[in-house]
């Protein structure tokens, strides 16, 4: 099973409301079931891919995240422009930090900058931890 697909499925969950609106809970429920099965060792790659490509908005978002080596959400990825050469380094906003559910890791959220309150996992009602 491709762990990149599992990782992106974990990441997209917190972005579903803006990507699919009122259908977010349906998508999230399907992803949560599949991610729980992945933790149990089941190969759910094809099923995850099916859910992640059903909506054009989710599909485009997932494609952008998969193209980024660090799997950053599109708004946290460095912007590149023609004739612009960034300074050496990772090119990632310095405050963007990945947080995960400490129970199972199936809820991922990126803190865009210091000062943004760290949310709780929607599955377990526990505060996310760096990961």
Describe the fold and architecture:
The chain is mainly alpha-helical. The protein has a domain at 3-75. 39% of the residues lie in helices and 8% in strands. The chain has a three-stranded antiparallel beta sheet with strand order 2-1-3. A hairpin with a 7-residue loop joins strand 1 (97-100) and strand 2. The longest helix has 16 residues, at 24-39. It is globular, with a radius of gyration of 15 Å. The relative contact order is 0.15. The model has no long low-confidence stretch (mean pLDDT 90).
Topology:
Elements: H1 3-12, H2 16-20, H3 24-39, H4 45-52, H5 56-67, E1 97-100, E2 108-111, E3 129-130
Antiparallel strand pairs: 1-2, 1-3
Helix pairs in contact: 1-4, 1-5, 3-4
